[in-house]
Amino acid sequence: MTIYCDESGGLNAGAMTFAAAMISPEAAAAVHARFRAVTGLRGELKGSRISLTERAYLFELFDRAGGRAWVAVAKRERLTLPPDGKPASDLALYAALLDLAVGSWLPETGGVCTDVVIDDGRYDPVVLGHVRETIQAGLAGWGRASLADSRRSDGVQIADVIANSLFNITVGSPRARRIGVIVEPLIASRALRIAELTRLP
Questions:
Q1: Which residue has the higher pLDDT, 113 or 178?
Q2: 171 and 14 in contact (C-beta within 8 Å)?
Q3: Residue 1, pLDDT above cutoff 70
Q4: Which residues share a beta bridge with 196?
Q5: DSSP codes, 74-127
């Protein structure tokens, strides 16, 4: 299986979420193709650009395809800063959330080879290269970590919608209640699980 990763939000927005969605590349491609065929979507699939009905349909397709996700969530007001008192940065928070989300999956893989695909769009490629190397080391031979252009990755685009959905819920956006109703069955079935980050390392 493959774990596709993407994030939403930031400290200035009040919260950051990081989705690690586990689904096979073939299933991700099928979900993405079916979603586009039914909705007529053109351009990149992003959670910030689709309607609530479209979002619900994507989650239904993801669930039917056997997709599962861990989402690491950090809310600014509940985040304990490092002991040195230095202001937290989005990059430090991003790295900590990525580690928490992917790390939540590793004990469940049973040693099966797992690839981790990370969206390369948010930070400088050199910085993300270091993040990728850290994840690669954490996989300890179980798989490989790579960066991907979200526009060319079905799975990363699906992870974007998941991360955006949990971001809306976390910050209490005007759409939060409706999105909560959409994801409730997946949370109940544990197809979608949430890990809260309250302290930066």
A1: 178
A2: yes
A3: yes
A4: 73
A5: EEGGGPBPPTT-PPP-HHHHHHHHHHHHHHHHGGGSTT---EEEEE-SSS-HHH
The β-bridge relationship of strands 145-148 and 68-75 is unpaired
d(CA 129, CA 158): 22
Instruction: Fill in the amino acid letter for 101.
Output: A
Residue 123 to residue 116: CA distance in whole angstroms: 17
Dihedral angle computed from the Cα positions of residues 74, 80, 85 and 87, in that order, rounded to the nearest 10 degrees: 20
Locate 152 and state its tokens: 């060319």
| 114 or 42: which leads in pLDDT | 42
* pLDDT range class, residue 112, cuts 50, 70, 90: low
Q: Distance (Å, rounded) from C-alpha 62 to C-alpha 23? A: 8
Token duo for residue 11? 């400290």
Query: Measured over all CA atoms, what is the biggest interatomic distance in the chain, rounded to whole angstroms?
Result: 52
Given 3-state DSSP classes, what are the helix, strand and coil percentages for the chain, each rounded to the nearest 5?
A: 50, 20, 25
Instruction: Please say whether the beta carbons of 89 and 117 come within 8 A.
Output: no
pLDDT band at 111 (very low <50, low <70, confident <90, very high): low
